[in-house]
């Protein structure tokens, strides 16, 4: 449910189409994008709230509901009430920022709560099945939504249809809030430390293995964030159809079914970190190919090739990355460690997106030549 709400309303191809329909440029889109990791850094205050509570269900559920209501409903209302482009951009930014502060205050609350139901010996299988189900459900829904988006792009009813899809996403968000509140809440191991913001940064220093793992995640997140504008580029500059992009997401679910067991065997044979390293090298090389997609005769075929490669390596990549925060996390004070992880990774995301957006803005209409190919900039 969370993935459906996110894909329909807050990220991905449909979200990019929605921003384009509101006349936002790629630079505007980039600015809105890096507001999310900045707001996520407010998770540093999460332990001050959660570590004082013996039961957290009510607080977490309220924050989760506010996150969806402010973001989905707030942005949708601004679509019709803010007409000046600058006012609309500021309004979108304020709503997105405020909603993600609510999301940040949840910190690792849900993870600490639900981790009781995912023991270490079944974690690889759990994350694998989670990816398969999420990939199939998300893919099927996005294919239908993508066909609709292609059919109405540029028409007088484009924005109206997109808003209807956002209403569907909001219904999924409501189901997500309810589902997350259902599991039994067990007592939390009390921390030996006094509740303090300082502990969010001090306690991880006592656990070097945890720090090294988070450092790896930060480096990877920074690199991925540099290339986040590829969706805007292939949609609005290259002209890849939304239905094709979302159709490839459906294929992701099929690839997950076929490759999930192989990915688990890789983890068992090579460890979580080596498996991640192998997959990450392939992902980095395939992402670089997006730069050349405008130079080939059949860009749609080239795009499909890139996405298939990324789906295959993504099975192992996402499986390992999802478990990284929990590999070396201590049992006590879990909220502190997950808050540190959230702040560190989101700062890396922010810096990556900011530098990527600034690079595109400075590049303007200039082109680059690499290996004999002329690389055109995204349509700003």
Q: Can you count the helices?
A: 15
Q: N-to-C terminal Cα separation, in Å?
A: 33 Å
State the secondary-structure class: mainly alpha
Strand order of the largest sheet: 1-2
Choose one word for the global shape.
globular
Uncertain runs: none
Strand content: under 5%
Task: Kindly state the percentage of residues in helix.
Answer: over 70%
- The average pLDDT is 82
Total beta-strand segments: 2
Radius of gyration over all CA atoms, rounded: 21 Å
Order of helices and strands: HHHHHHHHHHHHHHHEE
Short description:
The chain is mainly alpha-helical. It has helices at 2-9, 12-21, 26-40, 46-50, 57-81, 85-105, 109-114, 123-152, 158-180, 197-202, 208-226, 230-238, 242-288, 299-327, 334-363; strands at residues 368-370, 373-375. It is globular and about 60 Å long.
């Amino acid at each position: 449910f969370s993935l459906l709400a996110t894909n329909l309303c807050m990220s991905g191809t449909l979200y990019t189409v929605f921003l384009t329909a509101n006349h936002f440029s790629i630079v505007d889109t980039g600015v809105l994008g890096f507001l999310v990791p900045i707001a996520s850094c407010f998770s540093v205050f999460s332990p001050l709230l959660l570590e004082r509570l013996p039961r957290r269900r009510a607080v977490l559920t309220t924050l989760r509901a506010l996150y969806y209501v402010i973001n989905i409903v707030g942005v949708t209302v601004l679509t019709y009430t803010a007409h000046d482009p600058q006012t609309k951009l500021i309004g979108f930014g304020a709503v997105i920022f405020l909603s993600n502060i609510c999301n940040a205050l949840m910190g690792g609350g849900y993870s600490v709560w639900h981790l009781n139901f995912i023991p270490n010996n079944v974690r690889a299988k759990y994350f694998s099945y989670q990816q398969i189900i999420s990939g199939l459900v998300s893919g099927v829904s996005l294919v239908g939504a993508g066909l609709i988006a292609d059919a109405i792009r540029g028409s007088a009813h484009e924005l109206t249809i997109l808003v209807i899809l956002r209403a569907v996403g909001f219904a999924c968000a409501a189901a997500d809030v309810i589902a997350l509140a259902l599991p039994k809440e067990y007592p939390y191991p009390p921390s030996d430390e006094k509740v303090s913001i300082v502990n969010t940064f001090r306690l991880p220093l006592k656990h070097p293995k945890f720090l090294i793992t988070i450092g790896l995640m930060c480096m990877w997140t920074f690199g991925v964030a540099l290339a986040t504008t590829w969706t805007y580029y292939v949609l609005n500059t290259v002209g890849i159809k939304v239905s094709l992009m979302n159709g490839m997401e459906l294929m992701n679910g099929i690839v997950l079914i076929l490759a999930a067991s192989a990915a688990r065997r890789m983890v068992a044979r090579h460890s979580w970190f080596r498996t991640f390293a192998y997959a990450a090298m392939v992902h980095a090389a395939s992402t670089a190919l997006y730069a050349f997609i405008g130079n080939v005769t059949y860009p749609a075929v080239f795009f499909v090739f890139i996405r298939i490669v990324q789906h295959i390596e993504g099975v192992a990549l996402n499986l390992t990355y999802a478990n990284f925060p929990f590999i070396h996390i201590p049992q006590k004070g879990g909220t502190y460690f997950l808050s540190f992880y959230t702040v560190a990774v989101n700062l890396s995301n922010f810096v990556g997106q900011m530098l990527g957006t600034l690079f595109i803005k400075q590049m303007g209409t200039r082109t680059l030549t690499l290996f004999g190919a002329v690389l055109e900039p995204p349509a700003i």
